[in-house]
Amino acid sequence: MAAQTVATTPTVDLGPAAALSCRECKERFPLGPIFACESCFGPLEIAYDLPAGDPEALRARIEAGPNSIWRYAPLLPVPADVARKPSLNPGFTKLVKADNLARELGVTGGLYVKDDSGNPTHSFKDRVVAIAVEAARAFGFTTLSCSSTGNLAGAVGAAAARAGFRSCVFIPHDLEQGKVVMAAVYGGELVGIEGNYDDVNRFCSELIGDPLGEGWGFVNVNLRPYYGEGSKTLAYEICEQLGWRLPDQIVVPIASGSQLTKIDKGLQELIALGLVEDRPYKIFGAQAEGCSPVSVAFKGGHDVVRPQKPDTIAKSLAIGNPADGPYVLDIARRTGGAVEDVDDAQIVEAIKLLARTEGIFAETAGGVTVGVTRKLIEAGLLDPALSTVVLNTGDGLKTLDAVAPTTGPTATIRPSLDAFRDAGLAH
Ligand SMILES: *Cc1c(COP(=O)(O)O)cnc(C)c1O
């Protein structure tokens, strides 16, 4: 099952990463390009020897680090000198205090937008790819690959170009033009697959087990345990930017669910290390109605996530069979959060709401989180009196099609003052 395509040496240096550990049966394996437990087929994750000792000293060390995810290198599966290697240096994006949006939504406890559109390829995927690249280097891969709903393909293409890898990435054939161009412009191979994301992912799993894919590091398949850790940096940054405090509530978009589970892991680590005070927080998951397998399971009280065939404008979240779905359900229930969904019209409305209140142009995934936040407040599930962080994980310029039909010039006029007066726009 677990494809061991490259011989690993026991001397792989991935910093504090000690081993791979099965999330189900807890069996441990040496660090390598494997992703499923050899005993029970459960997903593998990284187990660490994290720096013990004085939280004050660790905080100071982090604060003195670079303005990128590499400031958290002591908590990531990367070599200590990672910041000196060629990388896009993602992360340390803005945490925007969204007072105007808070007024619109009736939030009084402090509302923040963590705006990951500010990453090098304009989505949160640069975080996860940067970590996977270090694993690919350590395991001797020369080609980087992925199955992508769009943003990941661009992030892999760009990171490969910068770090000196060949890249060949796979996407569904019908993505937005902005995503296709972003994925192709960095010069790697881009392959459109006639099917949806779940078809692309199945194809990549077959390719890994075949000699055709030998020597390839698929960032979200055989490097998935490493890739996933990149999402922890969102949790670290949010807490550091809040003055080393946990937010009360976080609203996170769900595609495969990896990001949400790793944000929880990151918060747990900060608590365990004494970097933040140990107090409760709630994690909320957000999906589009047209691809809402986790939301449906949550609301139905189920433990099993039933796959769907996606049909939504939120294409970056259109994974009908999310690998981490059951873990997302656990986290939402354990923390007292919820999982909710909004329809396409509500997504567009929320994109415009965020743009007109805060000057942030989100991609459809950001419309999903903002729209779900509003819906959760209305349903009494999200407490407006508590501090709340909403993630915007991508840039609206990549999903122009979503808003273009309902957004355009207020008027088009001849270049004369009379025409302008007639248009009724003078104040
Ligand atoms: C990939 C992606 C996500 C979340 O992905 P997970 O698979 O759940 O980790 C969220 N937003 C955007 C814009 C993405 O591209």
Automatic annotation (TrEMBL):
Enzyme Commission number: 4.2.3.1
Pfam entry (one): PALP
Highest taxon of the lineage: Bacteria
Top EC class of this enzyme: lyase
GO molecular function, one term: threonine synthase activity
Gene3D superfamilies from the UniProt entry: 3.40.50.1100
The keyword NADP is assigned to this record: no
Keyword field: Lyase, Pyridoxal phosphate
Domain Tryptophan synthase beta chain-like PALP: 88-394
Family affiliation: Belongs to the threonine synthase family.
NCBIfam families: thrC
Protein name in the entry: Threonine synthase
Lineage of the organism: Bacteria, Bacillati, Actinomycetota, Actinomycetes, Kitasatosporales
